[in-house]
Amino acid sequence: MKKWIAGILGVGVIAVVVCVYVFIPSEILVVEARNIKCSAPAVFRHISETKVWQEWLPGSSLVYNNCITHGNYTYNVSGKLYNAAPVIISTGSVKYSSSINILPLPDHTIKLQWKCSVKGSNNPFKRWSQFNEAKKLKKEFSKVFLSLQVFTENTKNVYGYTIEYTTLKDSTLAATKKITTNYPDTKTIYGMISLLETYAKANDAQITNHPMMNVRSSKQGYETIVAIPLNKELPGNATIFPSRLANIKDKTLILEVKGGQNEIQKAYKQLSIFMQDYQLTQPVIPFESLETNRSLQPDSSKWITRIYAPIV
Questions:
Q1: pLDDT in tens, 85-99
Q2: Domain 26-152 is of which CATH architecture?
Q3: Inter-residue contact 312 to 295 (CB < 8 Å)
Q4: pTM for this one?
Protein backbone atom coordinates (compact mmCIF):
# COMPACT_ATOMS: atom_id res chain seq x y z
CA MET A 1 0.00 0.00 0.00
CA LYS A 2 2.79 2.37 1.00
CA LYS A 3 4.69 1.55 -2.17
CA TRP A 4 1.56 2.23 -4.17
CA ILE A 5 1.05 5.68 -2.53
CA ALA A 6 4.73 6.49 -2.96
CA GLY A 7 4.47 5.53 -6.59
CA ILE A 8 1.49 7.81 -7.14
CA LEU A 9 3.30 10.67 -5.39
CA GLY A 10 6.38 10.04 -7.47
CA VAL A 11 4.39 10.11 -10.67
CA GLY A 12 2.67 13.29 -9.51
CA VAL A 13 5.99 14.99 -8.77
CA ILE A 14 7.34 13.94 -12.14
CA ALA A 15 4.19 15.25 -13.84
CA VAL A 16 4.52 18.61 -12.06
CA VAL A 17 8.20 18.85 -13.03
CA VAL A 18 7.39 18.00 -16.64
CA CYS A 19 4.60 20.61 -16.71
CA VAL A 20 6.97 23.23 -15.33
CA TYR A 21 9.53 22.53 -18.06
CA VAL A 22 6.90 22.29 -20.80
CA PHE A 23 4.75 25.29 -19.95
CA ILE A 24 7.28 27.65 -18.36
CA PRO A 25 10.05 28.57 -20.81
CA SER A 26 13.69 28.86 -19.85
CA GLU A 27 13.39 32.61 -20.54
CA ILE A 28 10.25 34.21 -19.12
CA LEU A 29 9.34 37.37 -21.03
CA VAL A 30 7.37 40.01 -19.12
CA VAL A 31 5.66 42.53 -21.39
CA GLU A 32 3.23 45.30 -20.43
CA ALA A 33 1.81 47.85 -22.89
CA ARG A 34 -0.44 50.87 -22.59
CA ASN A 35 -1.62 53.63 -24.95
CA ILE A 36 -1.24 57.18 -23.65
CA LYS A 37 -2.71 60.35 -25.13
CA CYS A 38 0.46 62.41 -24.98
CA SER A 39 3.43 63.28 -27.19
CA ALA A 40 6.49 61.03 -27.33
CA PRO A 41 8.96 63.78 -26.27
CA ALA A 42 6.87 64.68 -23.20
CA VAL A 43 6.60 61.06 -22.06
CA PHE A 44 10.29 60.47 -22.73
CA ARG A 45 11.24 63.40 -20.47
CA HIS A 46 9.32 61.74 -17.65
CA ILE A 47 10.78 58.24 -17.98
CA SER A 48 14.37 58.96 -19.02
CA GLU A 49 15.56 60.24 -15.62
CA THR A 50 14.95 58.27 -12.44
CA LYS A 51 14.59 61.33 -10.21
CA VAL A 52 11.70 62.61 -12.34
CA TRP A 53 9.69 59.46 -11.57
CA GLN A 54 8.83 60.92 -8.17
CA GLU A 55 6.73 63.59 -9.89
CA TRP A 56 4.30 61.10 -11.38
CA LEU A 57 4.63 57.86 -9.37
CA PRO A 58 2.74 58.16 -6.05
CA GLY A 59 4.27 56.25 -3.17
CA SER A 60 7.77 56.31 -4.65
CA SER A 61 10.85 57.73 -2.98
CA LEU A 62 14.34 58.65 -4.16
CA VAL A 63 17.09 56.60 -2.54
CA TYR A 64 20.81 56.02 -2.98
CA ASN A 65 22.56 56.23 -6.36
CA ASN A 66 19.65 58.05 -7.97
CA CYS A 67 17.27 55.08 -7.61
CA ILE A 68 13.51 55.12 -7.02
CA THR A 69 11.75 52.66 -4.76
CA HIS A 70 8.10 51.74 -5.27
CA GLY A 71 6.57 48.91 -3.29
CA ASN A 72 8.97 45.97 -3.28
CA TYR A 73 10.91 47.21 -6.30
CA THR A 74 13.78 49.62 -6.90
CA TYR A 75 14.20 51.24 -10.33
CA ASN A 76 17.25 52.85 -11.89
CA VAL A 77 17.20 54.35 -15.40
CA SER A 78 20.65 53.34 -16.64
CA GLY A 79 20.79 55.32 -19.88
CA LYS A 80 18.97 57.10 -22.70
CA LEU A 81 18.20 55.69 -26.12
CA TYR A 82 16.03 56.99 -28.94
CA ASN A 83 12.46 56.81 -27.57
CA ALA A 84 13.58 54.20 -25.05
CA ALA A 85 14.89 54.02 -21.49
CA PRO A 86 16.79 50.99 -20.13
CA VAL A 87 15.70 50.33 -16.54
CA ILE A 88 17.44 48.14 -13.95
CA ILE A 89 14.90 46.59 -11.56
CA SER A 90 15.94 45.29 -8.15
CA THR A 91 13.89 43.30 -5.66
CA GLY A 92 15.75 41.85 -2.72
CA SER A 93 19.02 40.44 -4.03
CA VAL A 94 17.66 39.87 -7.56
CA LYS A 95 18.16 42.29 -10.46
CA TYR A 96 16.43 42.37 -13.83
CA SER A 97 17.31 44.28 -16.99
CA SER A 98 14.35 45.87 -18.72
CA SER A 99 13.50 48.53 -21.28
CA ILE A 100 10.63 51.00 -21.63
CA ASN A 101 9.98 51.78 -25.29
CA ILE A 102 7.87 54.55 -26.83
CA LEU A 103 6.06 53.83 -30.09
CA PRO A 104 4.40 56.91 -31.69
CA LEU A 105 0.81 56.39 -32.90
CA PRO A 106 -1.58 58.68 -34.83
CA ASP A 107 -3.76 61.31 -33.15
CA HIS A 108 -1.15 62.54 -30.64
CA THR A 109 -0.98 59.12 -28.97
CA ILE A 110 1.89 56.84 -28.06
CA LYS A 111 2.18 53.21 -27.05
CA LEU A 112 4.39 52.47 -24.06
CA GLN A 113 5.88 49.01 -23.89
CA TRP A 114 7.86 47.67 -20.95
CA LYS A 115 9.88 44.49 -21.61
CA CYS A 116 11.77 42.45 -19.08
CA SER A 117 13.37 39.04 -19.45
CA VAL A 118 13.57 36.66 -16.47
CA LYS A 119 15.99 33.77 -17.02
CA GLY A 120 14.41 30.56 -15.73
CA SER A 121 16.35 28.26 -13.44
CA ASN A 122 17.02 24.60 -14.23
CA ASN A 123 15.53 23.83 -10.84
CA PRO A 124 11.81 23.31 -11.54
CA PHE A 125 10.69 24.59 -8.15
CA LYS A 126 12.80 27.74 -8.50
CA ARG A 127 11.52 28.21 -12.05
CA TRP A 128 7.96 28.02 -10.75
CA SER A 129 8.85 30.71 -8.19
CA GLN A 130 10.38 32.85 -10.95
CA PHE A 131 7.22 32.44 -13.00
CA ASN A 132 5.16 33.81 -10.10
CA GLU A 133 7.61 36.67 -9.68
CA ALA A 134 7.23 37.48 -13.39
CA LYS A 135 3.46 37.74 -12.90
CA LYS A 136 4.03 40.14 -9.99
CA LEU A 137 6.38 42.19 -12.17
CA LYS A 138 3.73 42.51 -14.86
CA LYS A 139 1.19 43.77 -12.30
CA GLU A 140 3.75 46.27 -11.02
CA PHE A 141 4.48 47.48 -14.56
CA SER A 142 0.75 48.01 -15.06
CA LYS A 143 0.50 50.10 -11.87
CA VAL A 144 3.49 52.24 -12.89
CA PHE A 145 2.11 52.79 -16.40
CA LEU A 146 -1.31 53.76 -15.04
CA SER A 147 0.29 56.43 -12.84
CA LEU A 148 2.31 57.73 -15.78
CA GLN A 149 -0.80 57.81 -17.99
CA VAL A 150 -2.89 59.74 -15.45
CA PHE A 151 -0.06 62.25 -15.01
CA THR A 152 1.00 62.84 -18.61
CA GLU A 153 -2.50 63.02 -20.10
CA ASN A 154 -3.04 66.19 -18.03
CA THR A 155 -1.20 69.07 -19.73
CA LYS A 156 -1.10 71.03 -16.47
CA ASN A 157 1.13 68.32 -14.96
CA VAL A 158 3.47 68.27 -17.95
CA TYR A 159 3.63 71.98 -18.88
CA GLY A 160 2.34 73.76 -15.77
CA TYR A 161 -0.78 75.00 -17.59
CA THR A 162 -3.95 73.50 -19.00
CA ILE A 163 -3.46 73.74 -22.77
CA GLU A 164 -6.47 73.02 -24.95
CA TYR A 165 -7.50 73.12 -28.59
CA THR A 166 -10.30 75.58 -29.30
CA THR A 167 -12.11 77.41 -32.09
CA LEU A 168 -11.98 81.20 -32.19
CA LYS A 169 -15.39 82.82 -31.90
CA ASP A 170 -14.40 86.43 -32.55
CA SER A 171 -13.26 87.01 -36.13
CA THR A 172 -13.93 90.72 -36.80
CA LEU A 173 -11.56 93.13 -35.10
CA ALA A 174 -10.62 96.78 -34.94
CA ALA A 175 -6.93 97.23 -34.13
CA THR A 176 -4.31 99.88 -33.53
CA LYS A 177 -0.53 99.79 -33.30
CA LYS A 178 2.10 101.71 -31.37
CA ILE A 179 5.90 101.51 -31.07
CA THR A 180 7.48 102.42 -27.73
CA THR A 181 11.06 102.45 -26.47
CA ASN A 182 10.19 100.45 -23.35
CA TYR A 183 7.73 97.63 -22.79
CA PRO A 184 4.26 99.23 -22.80
CA ASP A 185 2.83 99.94 -19.36
CA THR A 186 -0.80 99.57 -18.34
CA LYS A 187 -1.55 103.24 -19.03
CA THR A 188 -0.28 102.95 -22.61
CA ILE A 189 -2.17 99.73 -23.29
CA TYR A 190 -5.48 101.00 -21.96
CA GLY A 191 -5.02 104.28 -23.75
CA MET A 192 -4.97 102.27 -27.00
CA ILE A 193 -8.00 100.27 -25.86
CA SER A 194 -9.88 103.47 -25.06
CA LEU A 195 -9.13 104.79 -28.56
CA LEU A 196 -10.67 101.64 -30.08
CA GLU A 197 -13.69 101.70 -27.77
CA THR A 198 -14.44 105.31 -28.67
CA TYR A 199 -14.13 104.48 -32.36
CA ALA A 200 -16.47 101.48 -32.05
CA LYS A 201 -19.08 103.50 -30.17
CA ALA A 202 -18.96 106.31 -32.72
CA ASN A 203 -19.68 103.76 -35.47
CA ASP A 204 -22.50 101.92 -33.63
CA ALA A 205 -20.43 98.72 -33.27
CA GLN A 206 -20.73 96.46 -30.24
CA ILE A 207 -17.70 95.02 -28.50
CA THR A 208 -18.21 91.25 -28.24
CA ASN A 209 -15.34 90.15 -26.00
CA HIS A 210 -12.28 91.21 -24.01
CA PRO A 211 -9.55 93.35 -25.61
CA MET A 212 -6.61 91.55 -27.22
CA MET A 213 -2.94 92.40 -27.30
CA ASN A 214 0.35 91.30 -28.81
CA VAL A 215 3.74 92.82 -27.99
CA ARG A 216 6.87 92.12 -30.05
CA SER A 217 10.37 93.50 -29.72
CA SER A 218 11.66 95.39 -32.74
CA LYS A 219 14.68 97.49 -33.72
CA GLN A 220 12.82 100.59 -32.60
CA GLY A 221 11.81 99.07 -29.23
CA TYR A 222 8.47 97.32 -28.72
CA GLU A 223 5.66 97.05 -31.24
CA THR A 224 2.29 96.74 -29.53
CA ILE A 225 -0.89 95.78 -31.36
CA VAL A 226 -4.15 96.09 -29.45
CA ALA A 227 -7.50 94.96 -30.86
CA ILE A 228 -11.13 94.66 -29.81
CA PRO A 229 -13.62 92.15 -31.28
CA LEU A 230 -16.72 93.71 -32.86
CA ASN A 231 -20.09 92.54 -34.13
CA LYS A 232 -19.42 94.14 -37.52
CA GLU A 233 -16.49 95.18 -39.67
CA LEU A 234 -15.44 98.84 -39.67
CA PRO A 235 -13.25 100.51 -42.31
CA GLY A 236 -10.70 102.06 -39.94
CA ASN A 237 -8.92 105.41 -40.17
CA ALA A 238 -5.43 106.89 -39.91
CA THR A 239 -4.67 105.15 -36.59
CA ILE A 240 -7.13 102.23 -36.61
CA PHE A 241 -7.24 99.33 -39.06
CA PRO A 242 -9.60 96.37 -39.54
CA SER A 243 -8.35 92.84 -38.93
CA ARG A 244 -9.78 89.35 -39.05
CA LEU A 245 -9.11 86.04 -37.32
CA ALA A 246 -9.69 82.68 -39.01
CA ASN A 247 -12.34 80.59 -37.24
CA ILE A 248 -10.99 77.13 -38.07
CA LYS A 249 -12.30 74.35 -35.82
CA ASP A 250 -9.83 73.31 -33.10
CA LYS A 251 -6.96 75.14 -34.78
CA THR A 252 -6.11 77.44 -31.88
CA LEU A 253 -4.33 76.63 -28.63
CA ILE A 254 -5.53 78.34 -25.48
CA LEU A 255 -4.10 78.54 -21.99
CA GLU A 256 -4.96 80.74 -19.02
CA VAL A 257 -2.37 82.51 -16.89
CA LYS A 258 -2.74 84.16 -13.50
CA GLY A 259 -0.12 86.79 -12.79
CA GLY A 260 1.92 89.58 -14.35
CA GLN A 261 4.37 89.74 -17.21
CA ASN A 262 6.86 87.26 -15.76
CA GLU A 263 4.15 84.61 -15.43
CA ILE A 264 2.92 85.32 -18.94
CA GLN A 265 6.44 84.86 -20.34
CA LYS A 266 6.72 81.53 -18.50
CA ALA A 267 3.44 80.47 -20.10
CA TYR A 268 4.72 81.41 -23.58
CA LYS A 269 7.83 79.30 -22.97
CA GLN A 270 5.77 76.26 -21.98
CA LEU A 271 3.43 76.83 -24.92
CA SER A 272 6.46 76.79 -27.21
CA ILE A 273 7.62 73.47 -25.71
CA PHE A 274 4.10 72.05 -26.20
CA MET A 275 4.16 73.06 -29.86
CA GLN A 276 7.59 71.49 -30.36
CA ASP A 277 6.43 68.28 -28.68
CA TYR A 278 3.41 68.02 -30.98
CA GLN A 279 5.18 69.41 -34.08
CA LEU A 280 2.81 72.37 -34.44
CA THR A 281 3.56 75.67 -36.19
CA GLN A 282 2.02 79.13 -35.96
CA PRO A 283 0.82 80.75 -39.20
CA VAL A 284 0.18 84.04 -37.38
CA ILE A 285 1.33 85.67 -34.16
CA PRO A 286 -0.29 84.62 -30.86
CA PHE A 287 -2.27 87.13 -28.85
CA GLU A 288 -3.34 87.74 -25.27
CA SER A 289 -6.93 88.26 -24.19
CA LEU A 290 -6.99 90.64 -21.23
CA GLU A 291 -9.64 88.97 -19.05
CA THR A 292 -8.90 91.34 -16.16
CA ASN A 293 -9.19 95.10 -16.56
CA ARG A 294 -5.64 95.92 -15.53
CA SER A 295 -6.37 99.62 -15.27
CA LEU A 296 -8.75 98.81 -12.39
CA GLN A 297 -6.59 96.10 -10.80
CA PRO A 298 -3.10 97.36 -9.91
CA ASP A 299 -2.06 94.03 -8.35
CA SER A 300 -0.59 92.11 -11.27
CA SER A 301 -0.65 88.82 -9.32
CA LYS A 302 -4.44 88.89 -9.72
CA TRP A 303 -4.47 89.45 -13.48
CA ILE A 304 -6.06 86.76 -15.60
CA THR A 305 -4.77 86.51 -19.17
CA ARG A 306 -5.67 83.98 -21.85
CA ILE A 307 -3.10 83.25 -24.52
CA TYR A 308 -4.42 82.21 -27.94
CA ALA A 309 -2.06 80.67 -30.49
CA PRO A 310 -3.46 79.78 -33.96
CA ILE A 311 -1.77 76.64 -35.30
CA VAL A 312 -1.45 74.43 -38.37
A1: 999 999 988 999 999
A2: 2-Layer Sandwich (3.30)
A3: no
A4: 0.86
